[in-house]
Amino acid sequence: MPPHCNSWAKALKVGSVPATTSTLRSRIHAALNHTDGGSESQRWRSLHLVVLGAGLLAVALSSVDDLPQFAQRLIAFVIVLVAAVFLVEYGLRLWAAPESPRYADRTEGSARLRWALSPAGLIGLLAIMPAFAISVRAVAAESDLAALFCFLWILKLGVHAPAMGTLARVISNERATLASVLIIFIIVLVSAATATYFFERAQQPDAFGSLPAALWWAVVTLTTTGYGDVVPHTIAGKMVGSVVMVSGILVLALMTGILATGFSEEERRREYLRVWDQVVKVPMFAELGTVTLSEIVGKLRVRHYPPRFVVVRRDEPGDAMFFIAEGEVEVRLPREPVRLRQGGFFGEMALLDRLPRNATIVTTLPTTLLVLYASDFYEIAAHIPSLVAAVEKEARRRRLENLGGRGAVAKPE
Length: 413
Ligand code: CMP
Description:
Blueprint: H1 3-12, H2 19-33, H3 39-62, H4 69-96, H5 108-117, H6 119-127, H7 129-135, H8 143-150, H9 163-173, H10 175-200, H11 205-208, H12 211-222, H13 235-279, H14 283-286, H15 290-297, E1 300-305, E2 310-312, E3 320-326, E4 328-332, E5 338-341, E6 345-346, H16 348-353, E7 360-363, E8 367-373, H17 374-383, H18 385-404
Antiparallel strand pairs: 1-8, 2-7, 3-6, 3-8, 4-5, 4-7
Bound molecules: adenosine-3',5'-cyclic-monophosphate (CMP).
């Protein structure tokens, strides 16, 4: 089933709202929020980026003096157009907000209010401010205010950075560790500023005459920025400077390490949930116990493919096998093609026989596959023999079918 059909099906269950309205609304919500990963959302994403880029360029150019009249008019027109697109987007997002699973337990009005007050809603509102500013002819004459509002459009780039949410979660998860490093940072900073204040103030009263002035030097040195506008002259001051520089590198390395580890852990958790959602669609896995299932989920990767995508090519070496969570593929066998659907698998023969692929496999619909790499396959063979036995049984049947040339009958796996 194509991904957007899920939301259609959900939409059709809404009793009081006419089915067509709800279908359109869920499709718009999916496209605007990239939840379906389909072509509509890809198109919207590209259009949004182009509009945003054109808008920001126009605002930047509007600050240039002495532009010819026609260029000024063109810039004002582009700004109006971009603001109008964002106005329509805001209206659509507000209308489609009740489709968000986050507001599933709310009434339509309350869902819209919650969305309007969310960071995305507030950014959307700020982005349409230029439309109002323009309507009181701010762009042509008093362009500063309009330009200020227009630069809020840059916040809309956040829509294209799903990792922003991840970053916020990582910072929240690691707040205790980050706070400890920050405290170390402050201790080194204040100690270094105090020490240099004592050592340097007599020689350089302008640069180190007060603790705040010495703090400026400590910040510039500890963050390894090193403008070089103020430098210690005494031996003791230079020694403190050396310690601060080395500490700066250590503190930054610690921060980077904490954030990098947090990011990779968060990504692993998200991937785990993504895989879990897809694994339950494959009956072969659903039959396994929870413990065994959680073991295999950690080894599978989710991949989405468009129709007519060649997943496996005949005669190429095989490094993975695939389970179909959604969609359909065609196995191009010499005699007749065979179609495999949700719950089926392929690519196992190259791993079992350690031979090149014996057929080319192409998607016929938008397809979601769970990929199991060879190394993990062999590991699972040792841990979950029942699963591999089922795969081997089907591989034997396929081998016989190919040898006997009995034609193409898609058997349910
Ligand atoms: P592999 O040889 O790794 O790559 C091509 C795949 O096509 C193969 O593994 C099987 O998974 C699949 N395949 C080969 N023959 C058949 C068949 N008769 N029916 C269904 N799938 C097949």
